[in-house]
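Researcher: Next sequence.
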Amino acid sequence: MTPKTSEYLLLFRSANWDRGLSPEQLRETTDRFTAWFEQLKQAGKVKAGQPLQRRGKIVAGKNGRTIADGPFAESKEAIGGYFLVNAADLDEAVAMARGCPMLEFGTTVEVRPIAEICPTFERIQAQLAHALV
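Model: Next structure:
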């Protein structure tokens, strides 16, 4: 059984949510976003949060032999940033994500619980324990 966590990652995915907005809409939306972030911060919910550059590399293959431009070679929605938040449960973390002002312009927010143990390693450990019996 996986331990319950109180940390969640909010991943902001978007493909240029700001395209086609007027200067007034841009100002209003960015002001609303900043106010939303500050409200979460003041409530002690945000542990960290940063925007991500659009450039990067993807490392894959045995021994990391494959290096490609990235981070989103084929993706229509790039991860533009993240918040690491404290929440009582997944429902509270989702409620926080629902407050994102960019949702109305096509941004999506992926909400993921932080695992105390890598789920893949946990599964492998269980398989190995059964194999040794």
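Model: The beta strands are 7-14, 46-51, 56-60, 66-70, 78-86, 108-113. Residues 7-131 form a domain with the Alpha-Beta Plaits fold (CATH 3.30.70.1060).
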